[in-house]
Design goal:
The protein is mainly α and about 150 residues long.
Length: about 150
């Protein structure tokens, strides 16, 4: 069994300082990637049972997206130009859903949300041509403007 311990965990719990081989430390960037992969898998299998991790951030993010998925999907759909939500790949939908969750339900700065979403897009769906990165960037920019108008 692998135990996850967050690198940027603000607690100085001595248990977190052990060096056993079964300990894997995840940065916030890696935690975001794990959230997206979990959302992808849930969407693909339509199994929304969540197995909690030791990471509060991951648990809150996954639960937050699942709890608010209808509102998140409405926001995305309202900002897709000539696309539908179902037309997005499972991974692109997971990336954008998580980004919208962070934009609308957390205090994470827009620049960080977009940067992380684009990095994940580049890694998993872009195919090296920049098209999906540009698409995701445009959609998130539209959503940012939309959310600002809503106040």
């Amino acid at each position: 069994m692998i135990r996850f311990i967050c690198i940027d965990d603000r607690s100085n719990n001595m248990e977190n300082n052990n060096t056993q081989n079964d300990v894997v430390k995840l940065s916030r960037k890696s935690q975001r990637e794990e959230v997206v992969k979990a959302l992808y898998q849930m969407d693909l299998t339509t199994d929304f049972n969540v197995e909690l991790t030791e990471y509060e951030y991951i648990n809150e993010a996954i639960t937050g997206v699942i709890t608010n998925v209808e509102k998140i999907d409405e926001i995305i759909s309202a900002n897709l130009e000539k696309w539908s939500l179902k037309r997005l790949t499972f991974m692109d939908r997971a990336i954008i859903r998580f980004a919208v969750y962070e934009m609308d339900f957390t205090d994470t700065p827009f620049e960080i949300v977009v940067n992380e979403a684009l990095n994940i897009t580049r890694k998993y769906t872009d195919e090296g041509n920049g098209k999906m990165v540009s698409f995701t960037n445009k959609v998130l920019d539209n959503i940012d403007k939309y959310l600002k108008k809503l106040g």
